[in-house]
Amino acid sequence: MSERLYLDNAATTFPKPPGVSRAVARYMDHIGASPGRGAYAESRQGAVLLASCRELLCTLIGGTSPDHVVFTLNGTDALNLAIKGVAIHRRRANPRARVHMVTTAMDHNSVLRPLNEMIQDGVRWSCVPADPDTGLVDPAAIESAIEDETALVAVVHASNVSGTIQPIADIAARCRARGVPILVDAAQSLGHLPIDVGAMGIDLLAFPGHKGLLGPLGTGALYMRPGMEHVVATYREGGTGSRSDEDVQPTLMPDRYEPGSHNMPGIAGLLESVRWISERGVRAIRDHEVSLIERVLSRLNELESGGYTLLGPRDVGHRVGVFSFLHARLDAGEIAERLERRGILVRAGLQCAPRAHRTLGSGAGAVRLSVSPFVDEAGIERALDALLAVARESERPEITVPRTRLRTSDQPTTPG
Ligand SMILES: Cc1ncc(COP(=O)(O)O)c(C=O)c1O
Fold first, then answer.
1. pLDDT tens digits for 214-247?
2. Is 160 in the pocket of ligand 1 (CB under 6 A)?
3. What CATH number did the domain enclosing 206 receive?
């Protein structure tokens, strides 16, 4: 079977909805200009498109102010802005203050690394453990980790390793009761699950545009609940095309947090993909994903007989369509390579979430399959058949496949 089946949608989704690449090309070929940088029609056209994308994103997440949707380079950049912005603000407000933050063992390196980097600037952080079978974090444990000096709680909504969905509304209510803002990493949930920042009590929502939102790489945003701009400092400054007579960063939203030129071709594509999602409805997309999750769960016995263990929750209500497997004999890199020979593209390794893997007992990495609205049930069945075929083939002594190193940059550090 030679047709390629892309199942690395948790890294970035592919393909994109029809019209996305055309929107990128249209911007490149017919508009080209930088919004807010000129009074001519093309620059104004760019500004309209930028504002439309902000409005649509704001509606999608149940936000109240489109100007509080701040465009970023990707999900990582949005998380950095939130974490560093809160820490810098707190330190400036009281230079002697000890700043503390809380996160979870299921969080991504895009949260863990900024936190570790900030240690040298006087930030301490606590990591709340998760259940090794499900990856679920106990909201009460998060509440217990909050100290008087806690300035932020950062929690991943859906795990990029186990697909585990954390009980965000419960965690957010506890944070609010303690007067601590919550940052939610929606990298694997926005576009997959309905999100309403107001109803869920989310103060800061960080998300990429290129994963569940189905837009181009190099897009992302941070939604800041109105008022949060008073406790999030900027961590880079520059030209905004506004208040150019002043040589200090303007305070108006969203310019304050968007110095420099925007990725307008990417945002034009994102506008198109978010329109596509909004027309279908996130609930319908979730229903489709649920049908794929159910397919995988219905074949768990068969997969387990083939030597596979699925990481994370066994019930559809607690997971998104991210499936990581361990095998009793084969390592993850070898499985991924054998799957690619069958045309199935997956990701092996630690997926930038080493603590999540250690929690789930897969510290040397796992093989991950992840879906999008463009993966159908036949595709999932084909991938599961291929996983089983790889396991059967490994039992036959006459077939020897040289163990090659993972091509991913986050390969496990155990010898390949
Ligand atoms: C849970 C999680 N957070 C953050 C990120 C970072 O997003 P980006 O790749 O857009 O920087 C990822 C990417 O894989 C992710 O899965």
1. 999 999 999 999 999 999 999 999 999 899 999 9
2. yes
3. 3.40.640.10
What's the average model confidence in pLDDT over 132-153? 98
Residues 53 and 196 in one domain: yes
Q: Does residue 269 line the site of ligand 1, with CB under 6 A?
A: no
Q: What is the domain count for the chain? A: 2
Give the structural domain span for 358.
5-14+282-395
Retrieve residue 93's tokens: 């407000």
Q: How far is the CA of 187 from the centre of ligand 1 (A)?
A: 5
Show the beta-strand stretches assigned E in 319-405. 322-327, 344-345, 347-349, 366-370
Model pLDDT for residues 95-109, shown as the tens digit of each residue: 888 899 999 999 999
Q: Which of 358, 354, 357, 337 is nearest to 346 (CA)?
A: 337
Q: Are 159 and 188 in contact (CB under 8 A)?
A: yes
Whether 226 and 301 share a structural domain: no
What's the CA-to-centroid distance between 98 and ligand 1, angstroms?
A: 28
